Amino acid sequence: MSRKRSYHMTMVFHGLPIDIPATRAAVEERLEEIRQFRQFGLIRREAALTFSYEPRFHGATHVVGRPAEQAAVGNADREMELRKKSELLDKAMESLNKMQREVIERSYFDPEGEYDFISCGEMGISDRTYRRIKAEAIKLLAVAMNLEVYLKDEEKE
Predict the structure, then answer these.
(1) Cross-referenced InterPro entries, in alphabetical order (predicted)?
(2) Could you tell me where the beta strands, DSSP code E, fall in 20-146?
(3) CATH number of the domain to which 100 belongs
């Protein structure tokens, strides 16, 4: 990695009022959401049809409920949303260098779920270097996927 690019990557959040722990949590939440979608697919919501033998007194009787239709539309919308998020992640991962991409894939998408200290040993780098590369990659993914969390005015001071 060139010196110029290394300096540029460290300057991603420099001078911006960004809440770094909240941004990291948002990126990790998105990565977990996409991991579950890729591993299991969409877990579909089903229509809730619960009948009761007790009389139900209500107001307007002209209102028609469509729980099956609402569930089907919600499932289709959710699946399309998750596909778009997955495609956006793929594009964001292309912007990372090889080492950063491997660290993110090992940390969040590896089906074996190894601990980070095992992964850094297999990659032949120190634990500190592994964590540094992971933090830089998460910052870049946050920018690429527009997940930055900005500080409020009270927190800046």
Answers:
(1) ArpU-like
(2) none
(3) 1.10.10.10
CA atoms within 13 A on the CB side of 124: 1
In a domain, 47, yes or no: no
> Is position 90 within any domain?
yes
E-state strands within 37-150: none
- CA nearest 140: which of 83, 94, 107? 94
Q: pTM for the full model?
A: 0.71
First to last CA, the chain: 36
- Token match 């080492």: residue? 99
Structure tokens at 144: 């690429």
